[in-house]
Amino acid sequence: MLLRTITSTVLILAATATQAYDIRRISAVENPLILGTQGNADASRCVINDDASLIGFLSGATNLIVGDQNGKIDAFLDIGNGVTRLSRGGTGAESPMGAASLAVSADGQFVVFRLEFDVDVAISNDWDDIYRLNRNNGALLKVADSAQLAFGYEPQLAISDDGRFVAYTALDLGDNHVFRFDAQTTTTVQVDVDLGVAGQFGDAERIAMDATGNLIAFDSDEADLVASDSNGVRDVFVRDINAGTTTRVSKRSNGAQANDSSELSDLSDDGTYVLFSSLATNLDNTVPDVNGKRDLFRHNLGNGNTRRASLDENGAEFAYDTIDGGLSGDGQFVWLISYRNNNRPQLWRKNMATDAMLQVTSGNSAVSQVNVDLAGTNACFIDSKVAVDLSANDLNGRDDVYRATISPGQIVTIAREGEAATPIPAAVLADANIRLLGIDDAGDTTVVAARPPQLDSETFPNLAPSNNFHAYLIDTASNAVDSPCRNANGDHTNGSCDVAALSGDGRYVFFVSDGINIHPDSTVNRAELYRRDRQTGAVTFISRNTLGGVPDSGVDRLLSLAVSSNGNRVVFKSFATDLVSGDTNALSDLFLWDAVTGVRRISQHNNGTQANDLPYDRPYISGDGRYVVFAHEASNLVDGDSNGTVDLFLYDALLSTLERIAQPGVETTAVSRVLDFDRNGEWLGFFSAAVEYDGNDPGDSNLFRWQRSTGQVTPIATGLQAGEQFTQPVALLRDGTGVYFGIDTDPLPTIASIVLHRQFFASGAPQPILTIPTQADDVQRYKVESMFVADDLSAYVAYNWPLNVIDNNRLDDIGKLLSGYGVAEFGTATVDVPENAGTVNFSVFRREGQAYDASVYAVPANGTAINGSDFNAAPTGLFASWLDGTSGAFPSSFSIVDDSLTEPTETFTLILSNYSVVGPGAITTLTVHIIDNDGPLFLDGFE
């Protein structure tokens, strides 16, 4: 019978068949209802209808409606008692495409939305299509088919009050143009009609429409839309469709053209006024424009007057930029987004009839967009995640949509919009991939980086205003989440927590933070490196300078750390010049910290010459801390480096020597980078596009392994068939006996065809362990982005396909691939059975692994109950087994003997023993209480 300590080489021979194993998600929000009704992703592009009863917006949140499975940005409508989703595919079903913009008719009956461009989705699935939805009957009308945009231009939409006319931008003959669609006649006309001057081209971007749909305003950098356009900058125009005329409005009241660029903001419903922003300094004929800032102007189409709106109550110009705005239906009220009196853009309203200014937002606000109702008394706006003071309990850490209402008495009321009527659970993060940073050797704890705040319940209140990536520790067994960046008292950092790594034994966590409450010496708000003992709580300040103080610059907050198994060594990158003496190269360097000897620089020549370029990627370290491998751009770390590209290097901490490695006899001529390094410091997996490796590169895969003891470079694995290609991710077994990698059975980008494999160096053919699903719903390419392998061969992966209906974000999440041995355990520690129960069924469970045929015995042990007289079970034990690729419950049974005697409760145990492949789980002893049923109630409470 195989023991769990047997080598991996023998285990592969014992397997009954190769299998694909299941993935168990481990990156889940601890409390799926922690956000309440607040969205778990940013809101954007709000629109408000004429009577302010409806607000439309875009959001990638998965918790605004039940059943949101596409993991995309959708168009929603806040209807006053919750939200409804507007965007859908051409069939009316949930769209695999995200929504890119929307517009709402005056009464909200008609909504127009456009779907995004997404190369991960087949073009048959509505790339750039525009639809009009009739909310009364659900009818969808296609406005435009594949209305692609010029690169870098925002998608734009506008709709007439009655919903008949839709204006949009789209690419045509190489330029971005404006079009108007008539839903009644299903005809489309071009709006930005030029004069046909040879050689004149340009792009239009922002658009607005009057209530009737006849007047359409837009901005464009084309120079022949009107005569005498010679300023060479973007201007704002209005097209009268019925009259067939185009008027330039970004001009001075006397008709002089602007001397700098202008951008459209809005067109009043009555078609009288156009609002635009401009950098021009010659548009105001009343107050000299000398602030050197972007200003907001209102142009009267009736009399040609252009008036600066971004002037204060006394007619003085603002000292800061005014970047955008919106108009009431009659143009009397101008809502401005301006930096006036603040370092963040705030929202203001100006009455153009009286020049009265009213500040709508203040404090932490950073308003990015506004849309105004007909009366000018209500507006929707988007404010940033830092605006936590606009409404109570704003804790989602995301951009939100708000409604501002101004009463006749000039009282401002702000309410958050775009929330579900009742809380909808969200177990996922909806707007950013979770990054897999590492694991401890056993795989008991996983290190990830994610956008806060909702992943960890404990730190949720502290991190609510932030959505910068934050490091977390996840208990693999329980999915419990913790923050690694704490001081010795257990207090969470009051600064950043960007990067973390665990020692192999899991005792120490290393992290980078600019918090000043981590350590008594953390007196400068600068990112530094710390080690925290997870057993004692003790915190060590690692990145000290040569005098023992705070260095003159910080540690890299993006580059992953490399930590030895016992946590006594760590490799990191720093910009400081005083961590070691003689650091004068003015570049970031790699450093090795040793718990005994301190900090030394390792990215330098053996003769002390400093690097003349930068580290390229993250470092890796062997388990004993002796060997460090890294990629570097410098050309002077070793003699004879003349290839001018990124090379791989090995630092020997015992000998304090550096050498260039994995060179195939001649210098390589393309970038190489490290993919993994085993804990024994023997095998290196790496990528290189260098042609010098071609003799060792079947399938042109660019994936290799290098053996330290021999210096040999070989393909990452063997067994590749004709037409196949090795693919990333690549991860080495911790003990260096094998490698995990992908094989693409169809390298052409036609279908998803990647299968993850495992190969033991001593045993031959690759073994498939996971087939990455194909995109049956055609939402996106499914992939495994990164991978680490634990001691028991379980693989921890970043994956992006849905495992179940609550895994609905279509982003990178972290899962455990059950490619390891797993553990055997009982489902409960005790069980009470009546004496007359006869046969009693129970189960032994295999959990957390599915690899190889496995077995265990549940061996009986007498207590007050005796085997053969009080119960019957095979003395050698009850056998439980699982085939390769399986886990879960294995049913078994024992019998109880009813002796018809009145007696107290008797007890015996079943103890798991003789484990084959699997290890012991949490509950390895089952205590059975036999409760007598023959007499009156006994003192112990049983009868």
Topology:
Blueprint: H1 8-14, E1 23-25, E2 43-48, E3 55-59, E4 74-78, E5 83-85, E6 99-104, E7 110-115, E8 130-134, E9 140-144, E10 157-159, E11 165-172, E12 175-182, E13 187-190, E14 204-209, E15 215-220, E16 235-240, E17 245-248, E18 262-267, E19 273-278, E20 295-300, E21 306-308, E22 322-327, E23 333-338, E24 346-351, E25 356-359, E26 367-372, E27 378-383, E28 400-406, E29 412-417, E30 435-439, E31 445-450, H2 460-463, E32 470-475, E33 481-482, E34 499-502, E35 508-513, E36 528-533, E37 539-541, E38 562-563, E39 569-574, E40 589-594, E41 598-601, E42 620-621, E43 627-632, E44 647-652, E45 657-661, E46 672-677, E47 683-688, E48 703-707, E49 713-715, E50 725-732, E51 738-744, E52 754-760, E53 767-771, E54 784-789, E55 795-799, E56 813-817, E57 823-826, E58 830-834, E59 839-847, E60 854-861, E61 871-872, E62 878-882, E63 888-896, E64 906-916, E65 919-920, E66 925-931
Parallel strand pairs: 57-65, 58-66
Antiparallel strand pairs: 1-56, 2-3, 3-4, 4-5, 6-7, 7-8, 8-9, 10-11, 11-12, 12-13, 14-15, 15-16, 16-17, 18-19, 19-20, 20-21, 22-23, 23-24, 24-25, 26-27, 27-28, 28-29, 30-31, 31-32, 32-33, 34-35, 35-36, 36-37, 38-39, 39-40, 40-41, 42-43, 43-44, 44-45, 46-47, 47-48, 48-49, 50-51, 51-52, 52-53, ...
